[in-house]
## 1
Amino acid sequence: MSTAKRMDLLGSETAFAVSAEAANLASKGTKIYPFHLGDINLPTPNSVVMAAQAAIEAGKTGYCPAPGIPELREALAKDVGSARGLDYGIDNVSIQPGGKPSIGKYIAAMMEKGDIVLYPNPGYPIYESQIEFYKGIACPYGYINTSDGLRLDFEAIESGIQKGAKHIFYNNYNNPTGASSPDEEIERLASLVIDNDMFLISDDAYFDTLYDGTPKSIASLPGMYERTLTMYTFSKKFAMTGWRLGGAIGPKNIIEQINRLNVNMESCTTHFIQHAGVAGLNAPKKETQDILDELQSRRDILVEILNGIDGVEAHLPEAGFYVFPKVTELLEETGFDDPEEFRKSVLNETGVSFCGRHHFGRPLENETDFYIRLAFSGISKGDLQEGMMKFKSWIESRRK
């Protein structure tokens, strides 16, 4: 039996391949310093755990409505709406088994074969994978490195629009770069979407992991409410990566189509976990603030160490848990012209495991610099410091 040809179009989340390499090395006795995956090694808030246990004991282990249980849809509509100054109701919400399913379901429901879809690159690799799997044309836009951080490449976005793009994925507080948009950038993007009759999918995975200030949503801008599908996940804010709970929030007509796909794909998201989600949304802020405070402490330590290494340039991310340092000079000074060879050498010789820019979409033609991504969500402060000291010592031993 041969594999369907369309499977050749399906990509992967290659950070998991790096994780497998690290696990193999660990099985042979090497201590691994895990900067590769955006997993979280902090406990899920107790109120969420207790609610899941209570729901299991109450028999919430069978089927439930495909769009999600009403209690969770109402709570998520209120939470997402109030944080963005928008009015969402139960019909604007579809519950998903994680944040990722909304990507493919939107594309399956709203993109025709041959449609051009804009997406960030470097970015979450599943955008590109799902666009191409459903036979759309994946049109990437990148970032420009400035003294104030990475900024959207509007020249690439406008070029894609001129080619006929009508869909655009946007990930403010971006994975892997940590890039966040100032007000004027969000406003400029919204104007392009409105003026060109486009629809925007806002991946808000890290919206609730902003360390200072108030997070910004493009859906809040005039004219964008009806042109935005917001992707929500419980994984980050509530340290629930393995629970697989998320949602899609947006115009009712799109949510209705996503709900149809829920029926066809998984019937429903796990019943008792949805009750845990309700508890999380209603929990005291301190439970999630403790997670955020620990992540911020790790972020500050990591960025300070990285910027203390000659040949490394790291911006301080406002949100999320990734640092995306430029290492062009570092590779040259240590004798590498291939970032993958550099990554593997560091892993095998120090146990420090991270991803390269190439794990987050095919590098663009105009790229001349090299970057790596280090996640600080799955490593304790002690191991973070120890691993970075090993990395720094290894670099000094390799310098020309």
## 2
Amino acid sequence: MYKKSHKIRNFIFSIVAVILLSVIGYFLYDTYINIAITPEYEIKRTGSTINSETVENAIQNSNSVADMLEKVSQSVVGISKIKSRSNSIFSNNSISELGLGTGIIVSSNGYILSNCHVTGEELSTCYITLENGYTYDGSVVWCDVDLDLSITKINATNLPYATIGDSSLAKSGETVYAIGNPIGYEFRRTITSGIISATNRTIKIEEDNNVSYMTDLIQTDASINPGNSGGPLILPNGEVIAVNTVKITSAEGIGFAVPINVVKPVIEKFINNNKFDEPFLGIYAYDKEVIPYIATTPNFSSGIYVVHIDSNSPAISSGIQTGDIITSIDGKVINNMIELKEFIYSKSPGDTISINISRGYVTRTFDIVLTKK
């Protein structure tokens, strides 16, 4: 009797235990599936820094960059020095037949910024094809061979034009985009991206047994091919900070662009006055970045080293000599040739400037009246 009673109690206990475990299991399951998993919890649980807001922001940023590049592309033109038989300069053999390059519309009334080697020198003619396919005869109204920059005018109005930025604020590591016509019709207005690899770069150029230096360049790994010359280098906010000019063909991912600030005074004068009376100083100088390339080894930490004075310039009779180090002009510190040119371009023929120089242990100031080039 006792054994029978014990078996009954064990049976009842087992039933109760099963029922209790079932109830507890159901309760835990119901609680789990109704837990609101917040982004913060998800980050902690998975170790990920991505949440729905991050993804949404990334999508929005991607869309805004695409929209920006689409807008800037409308101000990018194709340039050729040879007139095509068709209505457009774009053809299947544009590079070999037409010397196709790129330009940037910088005003609504038809001023276009590019490279000298793309458009030709001042007073020459080139041919401009806009984004809408129309081609215009272009007159080169200004060119600086040393900078490899030019401005061309076409007879057109209400054109979409690029926003000019401040190249002095450019920093290594910033994202940039390049737009150009690298090969021809099939690849017109190609967009590439990269970063600013470095600023204030100097490169040595040897052409026709002549050696020259391009200084204060912006280096980028955004893909730049021959037809990209003259095209814009753009920040994510849509501002153009440089003009693509050369690529080192012996290395991959190394391209260069001329900072936009040097040409801003020229653009402004053309837009405001429809002309630019170029002031002339007649001094060519190297900054300290160029010194390792030349035979002489002057020791200076700032300023620019005078290597040439034009025989027909206002500077020749001022008392400045080759070997002098220009430290400032009108109180503005000058550390490279780009800064010197930017300052001179902001002046007009007839203006007087004061140049401070260092000559060994002697410092002097020279007043020079700029002439018209």
## 3
Amino acid sequence: MATTKIWKVQKRIDKVISYATNEEKTKNNYSEYGMDKFYDIRQVMIYATNPDKTEQQFFITGINCEVKDAVKQMQVVKMIYGKENGILAFHAYQSFNEGEVTPEIAHEIGVKLAEEMWGDRFQVVVFTHLNTKHLHNHFVINSVSFKDGKKYYSNLTNTALLRKISDEICEEYGLKVLEEKTCKSGINFENFYKKSMRDSDYYKFAKEDIDYAIKHSYTTKEFHKLLSSMGYYYYYRAGKLTIRKEPYKRNIRVERTFGEEYSDENILQRIMQNDYRREKRIIPYRIGESKVYKAKDIFKKLYKPKGIVALYYYYRFLLGFHKRNNTPYKLTPKMREAVKKMDHYSEQIRFLCKYKLETIDNVDELRKKKLREKQDILNTRNRLYYKRSNADNEIEKDIVTKEIIDVTSVLTKVRKELKLCDEICDNVSDIKEQVKTKEEKKIIEKKCRRYER
């Protein structure tokens, strides 16, 4: 079984890491490159690449960067996006039980974990240390994404995701995992993991696509073919279906992620229950292709309407209720993104109507009110934390923990409304400009039509 932990690199890693090299010498060398701001990252690298721990640095892998120039490349990304201050990097580790894995397997698991957790957006260096009986991996993650310049946010949700991915990979290698349970602090990481799946478009769309492939397949082979046609890579590890879609690096273990309903046996059973009389199949919509896709006849018609039934169907067709080649299409990722944006605008409109906000001043007043409300809730929660820390018995602690959870749920709603206030204020000027441009375009088109007459 493997345990994981992550913490930030901001000033120094005091007393946690004993450095193996001369600190002053390292610092002076780095000042020659103007990189003294990144001294802490260098110290982590020096510790992690210690030959006494890594067997002459054999078990070291860079993801989205070269190991020997990792610090320089991390600095370049920070300079490009103007984010050289604050948290410089994150340092994480993954530790195994004594005698549970070989160095090769430990490093392989560490690389897979890093690729799935951070590999699609961040630079990571993976080190496997062999100096103790418990083999363990170290990860140094750049705090700034090379893809979009956004910073990595280390919160409970991402921590839960790190634990879950580590467990899933360990299970693939036949290793035991820790049973998830509520911590002494009252935190249940399973709930945070479920939240990460609800908030992730990747998981949500993957589930929809799997359901779609199951519904429109009649054999397992056809199910796999449909997954491939939608851009998914699939494979079976330890007898379990796993899928992944570019540009994501994260593998989705279908049964573990979506539940027992998506086990191989249940997927096959759902496929076998499909109606074989259905003739048309929804096909993925493809942009940029002029070819017209028509519904394919999978099975020969078993019944052809005759007499008054045929007349009824023909009459519906003449009235426009029943159209030919009315094959629905599956939305592309770009279309899904547009639908998501439309839903978000709808949410903002409902928010404006709920509080009857008509001007920017109304939004500012509501924002100030919500900020005061947020501070009151935070003060209440802090008092509850203090009360729980001084509780005499477990029963009293559990009661206070439930109160904290209730207060936190209210705080989440207030924070969401504050975010909507900020988004509306930011969007108003852009929307006004777009509306003005659209109206000017309409006026020009109207004048052009008048001249054409």
